[in-house]
Amino acid sequence: MTQHQTADITQAVLDRLTPETDPRFREIITAVVKHVHALVREVDLQPGEWMQAIQFLTRVGQTCDDKRQEFILLSDTLGISMLVVQMEQARRSAQALKDKSASVKPTEATVQGPFYWQGAPALPLGSDIGQGMPGEPAYYSGRVTDTHGQALANVCVDVWSGDGEGIYDMQMQDAGMRLRARFHTDAQGRYDFWSIKPFYYPVPADGPVGDMLRAMGRHPNRPGHIHMMVYRDGYVPLTTHLFPADSPYLDSDAVFGVRDSLVVPFEKHAPGAAPRGKTMDQTWHSASYDFALAPA
Amino acid sequence: MTQHQTADITQAVLDRLTPETDPRFREIITAVVKHVHALVREVDLQPGEWMQAIQFLTRVGQTCDDKRQEFILLSDTLGISMLVVQMEQARRSAQALKDKSASVKPTEATVQGPFYWQGAPALPLGSDIGQGMPGEPAYYSGRVTDTHGQALANVCVDVWSGDGEGIYDMQMQDAGMRLRARFHTDAQGRYDFWSIKPFYYPVPADGPVGDMLRAMGRHPNRPGHIHMMVYRDGYVPLTTHLFPADSPYLDSDAVFGVRDSLVVPFEKHAPGAAPRGKTMDQTWHSASYDFALAPA
User: Fold this and answer.
1) Around Cβ A178, how many Cβ atoms within 10 Å?
2) Which of A39, A52, A213 to mutate against chain B (most B CBs within 10 Å)?
3) Contact B186, B125 (CB under 8 A)
4) Is B46's CB within 8 Å of A88's CB?
5) Which fold has domain A72-293?
6) pLDDT tens digits for B151-163?
7) Best residue in B40, B42, B264 to probe A by mutation, most A CBs within 10 Å?
8) Fewer C-beta neighbours within 10 Å, C or N terminus of chain A?
């Protein structure tokens, strides 16, 4: 008897795994096969629907290029990325909690998103990366500490955001770096820089993921946010955002990335004297946030 | 409170579905979200593993072009395609069994595979589509009936296969049609044609699915088979294969497509007189198979 029955095709696939298979890969691929087969049975998937799924996934792959990652977007919009982030956060917090003398919780993480660009320029503290870009100026400042509240010097604070209309440099025609920089904390763990106040924006909705969101009846918008990657040897690297507290869509982020602890009031200031010796001729904002890194 | 917890992110995603969502799409996407989230939790997926999965799926999509469908291959090699086929077969058989006067079971289906090419030439019965191609000649004949054993005239028997080395025309350089044709049954429901005896071959293993198979410790081979799509108005279209009974890999088809009822003895004949007025100067084979179509 060479054939399997409908009832045992799942086991037939799993039985093909040979003993040499890497144990962790075996664990993951076994769960993939079981869940996808269970899904097909549960919804009684029709051949035409299967073909639609194949065509959808193919389009997702073919929409990816070196500036656009539609599979990450698919994962983001189905809450998968954020689930992975939160599970990692839970592991990290559990580790940090083992240290009974710790007094500060590690800062919460959120999704990295598709617009991180490695190698942003390293700039002096206080630099303005928003100059000349659309948007209202904002001054960011705060400290980076460990979970005992001790200042951490020379921590890299790698920041990136869209402009005041929610457009990232990677989405612009000339494709040079904009609104990105790496800053390093001073001896007191302090960082500060000028940029713009981030604006809400839609995730790219002209591809297959956009079609999926429309079929689900969902809007594609993310609340305004500035991305931060905060890292130094000896500490768990942190990838997170800060969200202005008055942004629309905080309660319906298209990628499920909002954490209450990352929602920050942006104070509004009239034109005039401003930090770092600036004199502003327009309304500007300030936001203050302290980060805490867990030990590696 | 705008944020969800790890425990409720799955529900948060499902809660975004609006009432206007098409009910069937809602059912499928709900199952997709639940199963993918459950999978991530079950294996405690690490961020690095998530990124590997994203990169794998992206490569699968980018390997697809108008001649290669790597997502179908992924579905095939994980037994998903065959599961969908078997569920459809089970529905069809259940329908056919309602007719208590039926005396013949509908022919079993199997996977379509990635090499179907619509619009193969319509040729007269008895034509030879294997001439000039590598491989041992084979004469195919049989009848197409309904489930009462009544002959069905003018049924299209759309056949395709690789050559005697397992290579399909779509994989060849010049990319013209080879070893494909559409035949139509005569008034007695009969079909016959000459082609080659199909040979076992590996599914394309130079892409991401090949990497996956190697990681699973699996060979990429399919037993020899000739594809048949058999269809006429008023009947459920049948997509199936015939497998030579002496082929290697019948017990470990890389795409789980073998059904015992589709394994056919290929009779071996010495050179000399052969059907359709041929005189063969080499060994040739004959295979006989009757198809039964379920009413639509």
Assistant:
1) 21
2) A39
3) yes
4) yes
5) Protocatechuate 3,4-Dioxygenase, subunit A (2.60.130)
6) 999 999 999 999 9
7) B40
8) N
Q: Tens digits of per-residue pLDDT, A65-109?
A: 988 899 999 999 999 999 999 999 988 888 887 888 888 999 999
Which residues does chain A have within 8 Å of residue B58's beta carbon, measured at their own beta carbons? 61, 64, 69, 71
Judge: A37–B6 Cβ closer than 8 Å, yes or no.
Answer: no
A147 vs chain B: nearest CA distance in angstroms? 22
Closest CA relative to residue A226, chosen from A142, A104, A124, A106: A142
Res. A41: pLDDT tops 80: yes
Residues A258-277 pLDDT 10s: 999 999 999 999 999 999 99
**Chain B contact set for A13 (CB, 8 A):** 78-79, 256
Choose among B6, B46, B259: nearest Cβ to A86: B6
pLDDT reading at B197 higher than 80: yes
Sequence ranges of chain B with CATH classification 2.60.130.10: 72-293
Dihedral over alpha carbons A146, A150, A151, A157 (to 10 degrees)? 10
Give the pLDDT confidence score for residue A7 in this predicted structure: 73
The beta-carbon neighbor of B18 closest among A80, A87, A217 is A217
Name the pTM for this structure. Answer: 0.92
The percent helix, strand, coil of chain A (3-state, each to 5) is: 30, 25, 45
- C-beta separation of A117 from A146 below 8 A: no
CB-based burial, A101-137: b 16+ in 10 Å, e otherwise: ebebebbbbbbbbbbeeeebeebeebbbbbeebebbb
pLDDT tens digits along A196-219 = 999 999 999 999 999 999 999 999
A84 closest CB neighbour out of B27, B40, B58:
B40
The answer to whether A9 contacts B35, with C-beta atoms less than 8 Å apart, is no
B42 to chain A, minimum CA–CA distance in Å? Answer: 8
| Closest CB from B9, B69, B78 relative to A256 | B9
pLDDT-based confidence at residue B1 (cuts at 50, 70, 90): very low
Distance from CA of A184 to the nearest CA of B (A): 25
* Residue type for position B91: R
Query: CA B256, CA A54: separation in Å to the nearest integer?
Result: 18
Average pLDDT (B7-36) is: 95
How close does chain B come to A7, measured CA to CA in Å? 9
ipTM of this complex prediction, to 2 decimal places: 0.92
Cα→Cα distances B5→B2, B137, B145, Å: 10, 65, 59
